[in-house]
Amino acid sequence: MSKIKVVYFDVDGGRGEPIRIALHAAKLAFDDERFSFSEFPSVKARTPFGQVPVVEMDGDMLTQSNALCRYFGRQAGLYPADAFQAYLCDEAMDVVEDITHKLTSTFGLEGEALKKAREAIAQGPMKTGLEWMNKRLAKTGTGYFADGKLTVADLKVYYLTRWIASGMLDHIPSSLVADVAPLVAAHIETVASDERVKSYYASRQG
Asked: Are 96 and 69 in contact (CB under 8 A)?
């Protein structure tokens, strides 16, 4: 059996959490290497692209969060077999990456520069992305983004939208998700109540 190690920040969210949950759902044992933000410079120095998450497996270092989601998602039954449903899953994951990239580009800004950048993102690409997500959920009519059931796309959307709605992001209204994308707000609750997600956090507490 392969020895698997997930290397990511010590947070219950972000790009690393869908990978952790997919591994848990697939019943694949893994080492969960977590580190603080202050430790990131030393961690990124040993990664191929200076980015996390990475997964160490069989002497190799695997990169790219969406590719990792697909790989482990397939093993967990969290990635569609149908080609078009797989496209819908990928589409939603890529939308999340677009928003996340713009959001993380503001890290390190302060004061008025941070305020202007965050407000522009909130009313620009973030609002556009949330509205698109709402329309996609309305079109599927299932409460999920693809395949009529939970996929890694739902996990990716969940951790981004939960973060936006948490109020932890300065200058981004915590009400933004509910205001512009009520179906996405409901989606947060749907994913949080999934037994595989709940089981993962129960295992963390144990």
From this structure: no
Residue 1 has pLDDT above 80, yes or no: no
Rounded CA separation 119/143 (Å) = 29
Contact 19, 68 (CB under 8 A): yes
Entry pTM:
0.96
Q: Which amino acid is at 167?
A: G
Q: Tell me, what's the pLDDT at 28?
A: 97
Sign, CA dihedral 82-83-86-92, equals negative
Mean pLDDT for all residues in the chain: 97
Are 13 and 163 spatial neighbours (Cβ–Cβ below 8 Å)?
A: yes
Segment holding 60, helix H or strand E? strand 60-62
Question: How many residues are recorded in the chain?
Answer: 206
